[in-house]
Amino acid sequence: MISQKQFEKELDIIISNAIREDVGDGDHSSLACIPKGAIGKAKLLVKEDGIIAGVEMAKRIFKYVDADLRVETLIDDGAKVHYGDIVFYVEGSSQSILKSERLVLNVMQRMSAIAKKTNEFVQLLEGTKTKVLDTRKTTPGIRAIEKWAVKIGGGENHRFALYDMIMLKDNHIDFCGGVTKAIKKTQQYLKENNLDLKIIVESRSLEEIKEILAVGGVYRILIDNFNYEDTKKAVKLIGNQCQTESSGGINLETARNYAECGVDFISSGALTHSVHNMDLSLKAVE
Phi then psi for 212, rounded to 5 degrees? Predict the structure, then answer.
C-alpha cells in the first residue's frame, strides 16, 4: 500500500483541486452580500440514518480554506448516526464557511455512503474469517477519500493504484501468452528493477490455480467468477500456500456464501461504485 505521507499528499491534492474547480477567482455570491469581517456559526446536520464518515476530511477542508475556522466535533468518523443528529459545529468567518460548504458536503455525503455500504458487508461477514476489500473502481480524482471511507466502515483497502502492487489479471495473462510466463516475467522484472511488490494473480479455473501454485512466489490468488462449489475446491487446493480472494460481481446477496467457502478476502467494486450519497446539510446557526 502507499505510505501515509503519500496518502496525505493525495488528500491535499483533492482539496486544492476541488477548491480550484468550485471557487475559481472567488465566491462572488458570498462576497456580494456578506461583510468581510462577519462571523458566523453552522452545524452539520444528519438527515438520514447511517454511518458518518468524512469528519476529519471536513476539518482539513476548513483548515485549507481558513486556518482560523474552529470546529467542535460531536460525533466522530465511523459512528452510527440518526436523522436529526448534529455531527459538528464550525465557527468563524461567514465567507469562509460558505466557501467550504459545498466541498464539505460533497465529500461527507460520498464518504458516509461508502462507509455505510462497507459496514453492511462487514456485518454480513461476522463469524467468518473473511474480510472485505475495495477495488480500483473508484471515482477518478478522489480515490483517496473513497478508500478512506472503506476503512472507516470497517473494510480493508486493496492496492491503492497500479504502482503499489502487482495484479496479473486475465488480459495480462492472455497478452503475455499464459499464466506461467506472466508470473515468471513479472518476478524477473521485479528483481531487475529492485522492486519489492506483492504479486496477486487472477485465476479463471482450477487448472489455472494448479499452474499458478506450480510456479510459486505468489502472494494471493484471485478466485474470479467461480461458483460456490468450485470456490471451496480452490480454497482446499491452495491451502496455506498463499492468500485467497473471491471477486467478480460479489454483492450483499452473495458475499456471505463466498465467505463460507473459506476465502481470506472478498473484493467488491460495489463498495465505491454503487452507492447513494447520504443526505447531510450544513445549516447556519442563528
Answer: -60, -45
